[in-house]
């Protein structure tokens, strides 16, 4: 079975910034509260005419240019998102058309904040099956479209953005995906959801009036699950590969709350220089946090060729997991 490596990476965030000080003017909150409880300073917000596929296309173009290939060289295209342009056609189809990716097939993958982690795994397995040579996995979310900016418990958390990773066979058997551990637990479904708009509760005047098309979260329930699960997934994954946090060069977690990431890192025994935290600049971009954090890790020289990297995420569903890779470029 060929190994699957990440061979290129592209990201996009919209230019407009929403700072904690802006939010102070919108809801009853403070810069101090947001910083202390979440680690967030600012987030990027898409312009009204920008949708998820627009940001996905921008990120994809950067990844393709970095690798020096055309969209028509791709075999498959996955778009990980909870904020598709519309239910159907899939955002993957919209992105395929805009990119001119003539020979791909593809689909949207919905697993909330674990979407990109799962997408990386699916992309890698398409390559490892020997049936695909170039799979583009995009994580893109326009969270600002499903956030109630009068609800201080959620509106301070999220931002918009996109990232894309190209996954290809690795000529070097040591590089690429080593192992993964994914898990879903639907008993946590009520803790974080957008209640209306689907077949259970279709859109109506009533659902709009009750603000049921926005993110609703029991923050503490999600926090408790995330703190436990993020660590457990990493620990178990490392243990079954006879490793511990000390063997890992870089820990890249979903960026939902600085405290969750720090608790995970501390329990794994990983020093701050090996832990990528960029939630201060982007907030929680849902499907885009892992590629955005990877880009910053590479740019800052904290993730280099040959390093072992653990990716971890927890999100609505609940969805959770971790994967272990050796970085290939
Ligand atoms: O990515 C998907 C997964 N999502 C997550 O992982 C998020 C997990 N949860 C969290 O990160 C945290 O639970 C939050 C950041 C959402 C909230 O932090 P917390 O420390 O759990 O605060 P809390 O919900 O327990 O609220 C504490 C207090 C409450 O006031 P009282 O009842 O103690 O008087 C809230 O009403 O803080 C209040 N509060 C705020 N105060 C100022 C809640 N939101 C705000 C706010 N500004 N924005």
What report would you give on this structure?
The protein has 329 residues and is α/β, with parallel strands linked by helices. 33% of the residues lie in helices and 24% in strands. It contains eleven helices and 14 strands. The strands form four sheets. Strands 1-7-6-4-5 form a five-stranded mixed sheet, sandwiched between helices. Strand 13 and strand 14 form a beta hairpin. The longest helix is centred in the C-terminal third of the chain and has 21 residues, at 219-239.
Entry summary:
The protein is an alpha/beta fold. It has helices at about 20-25, 30-40, 50-65, 90-100, 115-130, 150-155, 205-210, 220-240, 260-270, 280, 290-300; strands spanning about 5-10, 15-20, 40-45, 75-80, 105-110, 135-140, 160-170, 175-185, 190-195, 215, 250-255, 275, 310-315, 320-325.
Topology of this structure?
Blueprint: E1 3-12, E2 17-19, H1 20-24, H2 31-38, E3 42-44, H3 52-67, E4 76-80, H4 91-99, E5 105-109, H5 115-128, E6 135-142, H6 152-155, E7 160-170, E8 176-184, E9 192-193, H7 205-209, E10 216-217, H8 219-239, E11 250-253, H9 258-268, E12 275-276, H10 279-282, H11 289-299, E13 308-315, E14 319-326
Parallel strand pairs: 4-5, 4-6, 11-12, 11-13
Antiparallel strand pairs: 1-7, 2-3, 6-7, 8-14, 9-10, 13-14
Helix pairs in contact: 3-4, 8-9
Oxa(dethia)-CoA binds at residues 29, 33, 37-38, 113, 152-153, 156, 219-220, 222-223, 226, 256-257, 260, 284, 315.
